[in-house]
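so my prof wants the structure for this chain in the tokens format not the other one, which i didnt know existed until like an hour ago. anyway here's the sequence
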Amino acid sequence: ALAHAVDPASPDAIDFTAGPQNIVDTAFLAHAMLRAPGPLFEALEATTRARLLDALRATRVMTPYFNNWLLFSAMIEAALLRFTGQADLMRIDYAIRQHEQWYKGDGSYGDGPEFHWDYYNSFVIQPMLLDVAETADTRDDRWRPLLPAIRRRAVRHAAVLERLVAPDGSFPATG
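here's what i got, hopefully its the right format
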């Protein structure tokens, strides 16, 4: 599927610059690549790996919104850093430092300057911030002082989520 997605001759080719939503989609792909590098990157043929990296870089033409989307650009750069040793460190730094500004307490970040009680902390902010910071730290230690707090907040957020689970296994509708 990845080979077809990045092959310009394939009818299944994805235009990674078609619109801002592609930053989101590409970030989730990049996140998966970071978490499962063997099957989702290293096992690919060299041409597919090169095209995939080019597709990640292509998203740089789009500007993320001033909210959790900063992490989408940072996640893409973290994958590039992991697989090429090169990245736009400003996108990583801006996302990490801005989320430090948006920390609201008790394990929750604002989705931008304002606090939103929804699940973006669960499936975007906490996992991406943690993985971006940990990946970036392997190449540049400027974020190392922030890592203990980022980890502590993720653990606290997980504890809060656990307490939200109803007896039937459902989560409350929020957002």
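also thought this was worth mentioning. The radius of gyration is 17 Å.
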